[in-house]
Amino acid sequence: MKAKSTEVADQIEIALQGISIAGDYLTDLGSSVHRGFYAHVLAADDTRFPAVVIHPATERPSSLRGERDGCIESEIPLVMACRLGSGTEAYKEIESVLADARKALVRGIQAIKAVTGRDEFDIGVADPDISRDSSLVMYAMTVSVKYNEHY
């Protein structure tokens, strides 16, 4: 048995792994989907780019009903990265990566909702990670869901 947040992340991973040019997407992002803390994954020598990292979720009880039932709000950060090169190619690539990630998440929404048992699902704003020393162009986007827990 797994925690619901892990099951949701599993479905997000499956959706993102389906991203390929052959599958009607703009990139082959699906060949470089990772789980863990993004700083470690993106710094690894064997990481292929573009890449997406499914960061561990944050969870917050939003309401409790009695002593045994609760509603949990979970936010799962996705960090997408491309190697910074000369010119504007990396910026064009990250825009394609963001579009592909959104498309894959929307296509996988039914599987995610099957895990949560609820209709609440939101894809957050894609925010750039501005780092002076980075050789990467990075954006973070949060997937938010709600689900019930029984204690």
Topology:
Layout (H helix, E strand, L loop, with lengths): L3 H14 L15 E3 L2 H6 L7 E4 L3 E8 L3 E15 L5 H19 L1 H8 L4 E3 L3 E3 L6 E15 L1
Parallel strand pairs: 1-2
Antiparallel strand pairs: 2-4, 3-4, 4-7, 5-7, 6-7
Helical/strand content category: alpha+beta
Number of strands: 7
CATH fold name = Alpha-Beta Plaits
What is the CATH C level class, in words?
Alpha Beta
- Characterize the main sheet: 7 strands, mixed
CATH architecture: 2-Layer Sandwich
Query: Which strand-content bin applies to the residues?
Result: 25-35%
SSE ordering: HEHEEEHHEEE
- For this structure, what is the CATH homologous superfamily? Phage minor tail protein U
Q: If you compute it from the alpha carbons, what radius of gyration comes out, rounded to the nearest whole angstrom?
A: 16 Å
Low-confidence stretches: none
Report the span from N to C terminus: 15 Å
Average predicted local confidence, pLDDT: 91
Number of structural units classed as domains = 1
